[in-house]
Amino acid sequence: MSTAGQTARADGTAADFGQDDCGNTADCPPPANADRPDLTWLLHRAAQNMRAALDEAAQAHGLTGARDWMVLSALASGERQTQLALAHALGLDKTTMTSLLDRMEARGLVTRCTDSHDRRARIPALTADGRRVQAEVTRARDHVEASLLGTFSRQEQDLLRDLLARLAAATPGECLKAAGSCI
Fold it and tell me: What residues have CB less than 8 Å from 111, skipping those under 6 apart?
């Protein structure tokens, strides 16, 4: 199954909203109310479109999808933290985080060392290849955003970012602070 119709749950699993709702994510009509479109549906569809495009860009750079890039970006922020703290900051289940880091470590994108304060804890860090891939996908993300927002003026793009940042800040969570951005 393609990730285009999937959205990440807080536990790191995928929820396939489009398939359950109407069978085909590309043709999924909004809930009927022409006077006041449903905000949840609009945000969901916008996020689906952005996530599908970013998944494709991440895959073009050898990652499994956007979630891998989010982990690399959180590590690129430079804040040294255990993989459990990283999982919490990104809203991922610890088992999912371990699996992601195992795969990225096997590819040479991250290394993990034992925490000197707690031998049971491991601290992930980017390798040079991990930094390169993270930077490449970040540039691809910028192109994806430019493409998706191409019909908006610069002022409209700035307003959209400001409004979404305010909406995201109104919801408790560590995601934006820890990773710099989340999808």
Answer: 105, 124, 125, 127
Q: Name the token pair of 149.
A: 């927002």
Query: CA-CA distance, 5 to 108, in Å (whole number)?
Result: 29
Are 101 and 112 a contacting pair, CB within 8 Å? yes
Q: Amino acid identity of 12?
A: G
Q: How many angstroms separate the most distant Cα atoms in the chain?
A: 59
Q: Where are the alpha helices (DSSP H) in the chain?
A: 17-22, 39-60, 66-76, 83-90, 94-106, 128-148, 154-169, 175-179
The C-alpha atoms of residue 183 and residue 151 are separated, in whole angstroms, by 21
Question: Which residues on neighbouring strands pair with residue 126, listed in sequence order?
Answer: 110
Closest CA to 17 of 38, 39, 47, 37: 47
Predicted structure pTM score: 0.72
CB of 122 within 8 A of CB of 114?
A: yes
Q: Consecutive sets of 10 residues in the chain, 183 residues long: mean pLDDT of each?
A: 38 40 53 77 93 95 95 91 92 94 96 87 95 96 94 96 90 50 43
